């Protein structure tokens, strides 16, 4: 008997779900502390002094690097995930992401080493993207390929919960540091703490990941001798239509999230007059709605179908884009809070079933590569430049054009969902 086969039998639902959740929580925590620091810290410490707006835009370019690295991670880790197995690949992806994050916390600043500082920052950011490119797909497959009949979306939403939990942890630690440290202390050493603390989370994640076993679906691929030689080539050659439509399906999810987090934080602090602490509190409160609507969406997706659920939510996001400027641009704490809560609630509704539907688009022998590549190509289209584009649009044309940008992305995703063949 194969070890993977006996392992698949021994997998307990609680262990599987926690292993998929803890990994994505760590990965998204790492990713989001960078996003927060890209707005609050890096423009001042890692780029030449001068125009603050230019430094912020340069910092957001390094933020975008990870999204370019994620498809590379999808291809590399997806190859081994579809050839060797889900478990070993997940461990390697977690280490890649975690070590890159810890190294960021140890980097010297521009004042110490000049131009090498942003270059090393960009290199570590590439490592973050590489790791996340392999992590997400494996975590979703770990959950969905162990799911009982009729509960695939429910199981598939557990790794998705890592996003709001990771964001809450990252926002919470920055808020705590803002409260207990002076600005001088924060910019001197305090900003490093969230990055270095990632090491503790990685140890916990590795411990849990090493206790799991191979998924039943991958064991069947092994038993039938159906592994393909180069999964990424098979995906690009034989599943091109699905890859393109899946990427467009997920695009609005990325645009929405990074507008609601990175862009709103930047604009709220710089243009609307909120303090860093005040706006982080509003975001953390709104993230609760993100987390609460993920399981709601999963239940709806199991009952009515993943595709129909996402079509309805994409239409709702398109409408939401039209109220972005009046609510967010008001500068009123009440209206800004309502805006954040609505936007992140919609985010949870679209994000909950997303992992499951992307995994179901591909057969088991290329599923790790296909789902990961689709998700991360959508990240390039929808998220890599979203904060940069939104800031340019808001600065040059007004906030209403940021809303039009979001609505357009939602309509693109809606059309792709209408065209795709999915449950």
TrEMBL record:
<feature type="transmembrane region" description="Helical">
    <location>
        <begin position="308"/>
        <end position="329"/>
    </location>
</feature>
<feature type="transmembrane region" description="Helical">
    <location>
        <begin position="55"/>
        <end position="78"/>
    </location>
</feature>
<dbReference type="GO" id="GO:0005886">
    <property type="term" value="C:plasma membrane"/>
</dbReference>
<keyword id="KW-1133">Transmembrane helix</keyword>
<feature type="transmembrane region" description="Helical">
    <location>
        <begin position="90"/>
        <end position="113"/>
    </location>
</feature>
<dbReference type="InterPro" id="IPR005829">
    <property type="entry name" value="Sugar_transporter_CS"/>
</dbReference>
<dbReference type="InterPro" id="IPR004736">
    <property type="entry name" value="MHS_symport"/>
</dbReference>
<dbReference type="InterPro" id="IPR020846">
    <property type="entry name" value="MFS_dom"/>
</dbReference>
<protein>
    <submittedName>
        <fullName>MFS transporter</fullName>
    </submittedName>
</protein>
<keyword id="KW-0813">Transport</keyword>
<feature type="transmembrane region" description="Helical">
    <location>
        <begin position="402"/>
        <end position="420"/>
    </location>
</feature>
<feature type="transmembrane region" description="Helical">
    <location>
        <begin position="335"/>
        <end position="359"/>
    </location>
</feature>
<feature type="transmembrane region" description="Helical">
    <location>
        <begin position="189"/>
        <end position="210"/>
    </location>
</feature>
<dbReference type="GO" id="GO:0022857">
    <property type="term" value="F:transmembrane transporter activity"/>
</dbReference>
<keyword id="KW-1003">Cell membrane</keyword>
<feature type="transmembrane region" description="Helical">
    <location>
        <begin position="371"/>
        <end position="390"/>
    </location>
</feature>
<feature type="transmembrane region" description="Helical">
    <location>
        <begin position="119"/>
        <end position="142"/>
    </location>
</feature>
<dbReference type="InterPro" id="IPR036259">
    <property type="entry name" value="MFS_trans_sf"/>
</dbReference>
<feature type="domain" description="Major facilitator superfamily (MFS) profile">
    <location>
        <begin position="16"/>
        <end position="423"/>
    </location>
</feature>
<feature type="transmembrane region" description="Helical">
    <location>
        <begin position="242"/>
        <end position="260"/>
    </location>
</feature>
<feature type="transmembrane region" description="Helical">
    <location>
        <begin position="280"/>
        <end position="301"/>
    </location>
</feature>
<dbReference type="Pfam" id="PF07690">
    <property type="entry name" value="MFS_1"/>
</dbReference>
<keyword id="KW-0997">Cell inner membrane</keyword>
<keyword id="KW-0812">Transmembrane</keyword>
<keyword id="KW-0472">Membrane</keyword>
<feature type="transmembrane region" description="Helical">
    <location>
        <begin position="154"/>
        <end position="177"/>
    </location>
</feature>
<dbReference type="InterPro" id="IPR011701">
    <property type="entry name" value="MFS"/>
</dbReference>
């Amino acid at each position: 008997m194969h070890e993977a086969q006996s392992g698949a039998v021994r997998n307990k639902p609680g262990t599987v779900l926690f292993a998929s959740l803890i990994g994505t929580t760590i990965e998204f925590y790492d990713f989001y502390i960078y996003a927060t620091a890209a707005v609050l810290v890096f423009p001042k410490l890692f780029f030449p002094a001068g125009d603050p707006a230019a430094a912020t835009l340069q910092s957001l370019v390094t933020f975008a690097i990870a999204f370019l690295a994620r498809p590379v991670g999808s291809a590399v880790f997806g190859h081994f995930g579809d050839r060797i197995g889900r478990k070993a690949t997940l461990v390697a992806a977690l280490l890649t992401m975690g070590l890159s994050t810890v190294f960021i916390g140890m980097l010297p600043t521009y004042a110490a080493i000049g131009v090498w500082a942003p270059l090393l920052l960009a290199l570590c950011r590439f490592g973050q993207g590489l790791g996340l490119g392999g992590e997400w797909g494996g975590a979703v497959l770990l959950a969905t390929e162990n799911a009982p009949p009729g509960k695939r979306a429910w199981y598939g939403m557990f790794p998705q919960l890592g996003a709001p939990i990771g964001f809450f942890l990252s926002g919470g630690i920055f808020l705590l540091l803002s409260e207990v440290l002076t600005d001088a202390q924060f910019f001197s050493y305090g900003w490093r703490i969230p990055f270095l603390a990632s090491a503790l989370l990685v140890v916990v994640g590795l411990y849990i990941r090493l206790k799991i076993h191979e998924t039943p679906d991958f064991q069947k691929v092994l038993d039938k001798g159906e592994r393909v030689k180069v999964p990424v080539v098979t995906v690009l050659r034989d599943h091109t239509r699905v890859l393109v439509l899946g990427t467009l399906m997920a695009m609005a999810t990325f645009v929405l999230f990074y507008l609601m987090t990175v862009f709103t934080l930047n604009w709220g602090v710089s243009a609307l007059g909120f303090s860093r602490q005040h706006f982080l509190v509003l975001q953390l409160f709104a993230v609760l709605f993100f987390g609460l609507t993920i399981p709601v969406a999963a239940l709806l997706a199991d009952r009515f179908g993943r595709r129909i659920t996402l079509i309805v939510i994409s239409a709702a996001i398109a409408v939401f884009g039209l109220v972005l400027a009046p609510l967010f641009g008001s500068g009123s704490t009440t209206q800004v809070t309502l805006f954040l809560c609505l936007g992140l609630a919609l985010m949870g509704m679209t994000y909950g079933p997303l992992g499951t539907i992307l995994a179901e688009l591909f057969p088991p022998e290329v599923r790790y590569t296909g789902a990961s590549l689709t998700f991360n190509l959508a990240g390039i289209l929808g998220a890599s430049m979203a904060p940069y584009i939104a800031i340019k649009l808001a600065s040059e044309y007004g906030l209403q054009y940021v809303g039009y940008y979001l609505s357009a992305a939602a309509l693109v995703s809606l059309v792709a969902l209408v065209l795709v063949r999915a449950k």
